[in-house]
# Entry
Amino acid sequence: MISVQAALDALFALVKKPSVEWVDLTKAMGRVLARPMTALRDQPPFDASAMDGYAIAQPAAKRGDRYRVIGEAAAGRRFEGDLTSDTAVRIFTGAPVPAGTSAIIIQENAIRTADRIELSEDPNAQSHIRPAGNDFKAGSCLTAPKRLNAADIALLASMNIAQIPVYKRPTIALLSTGDELVMPGEQPGPDQILASNTYGLAALLNSHGAECRILPIARDTSASLKATFALAAGSDMVLTIGGASVGDHDLVAQVAADIGIRQSFYKIAMRPGKPLMAGAWGDTIMIGLPGNPVSALVCGHIFVLPVVNALLGLPRSAPIRQSAPLAQDVAANGPREHYMRAKFHEGRVHVFERQDSALLSVLAKANILAIRPAFAAPAKQGDRIEYIPL
# Structure
């Protein structure tokens, strides 16, 4: 058995440099920016009013001062004339300020009669002017790689960038194995169960930028497994689910070797998830996940998601760990690192009592995986424990 970090390092070694494609901003949400993007203009591109009110050119203005209103400036339409010390321009938020403006008098502090205004309050120290380039200047960069959110896309649009280079989404083929499995919606036989792992993993990986294909269930014969493997050809990754252990019906390792998959490792010093294997099939990464539903999804978080991130051009790193105090005592741990289903609530880690790797209902209640190192001594309530958010 190898450690979790050694397994991750071996998986990262299988990742090839991702390719790049250009997309419109309308399709950029959640994509990973492949190259830095440079602003083509200042924002704002001119000195702009931050308030509705009146532009004046009198820095020593005070309550009771009067001005003649000589025009108007609105967003998208500037005032072209000149301000003097006794004139004002009606101005609206976002409008270019007239040349020579010293401040914007907010409309609440000005009493207007016909084409005259009188200041009802002393102006405060704020000019209410947004200087040109106050947000960013031409040449400013949005760095890469970066998974883009709504604010990033708005920023790119304001930089006057309509198309961007992003890393292609990795394609992942999900291959469940076992005579006992049927797809959701089908009628299971008396000795059959539903293929839940496939759907949970597809949801997890799609939500992080992958494009998953669910392949037909492979039955417990070499011929069926080889035929289903053939359907995965050309994918960036193939995930097998089940059949990775050492029982008489666990055929994945042998069939993988038969079709030319070069094994990178097999078995991890962790629980759940010990019978995990990985290898390379040409340019396709193969990861063989355990069949127990909790084991498969825990390995999805610990191993598959970091590989998906690497295939998207993001940094190659393990899931970020945090720590918090335990809400109860926890027993000593054995020789394998233990990823325990738990809930982070009110600043404490509540470890669930039932940790069987077949209990999806427990995993569905969890929002973290609490981590116990190998051979860890008993921990007391209040002791800090590391965890990974789900």
In short: Helices lie at 4-12, 150-158, 196-206, 222-231, 252-258, 293-311, 360-365. The mean pLDDT is 94. The chain has four domains: 4-17+168-311, 21-43+137-167, 48-130, 322-389. The chain has seven helices and 28 strands.
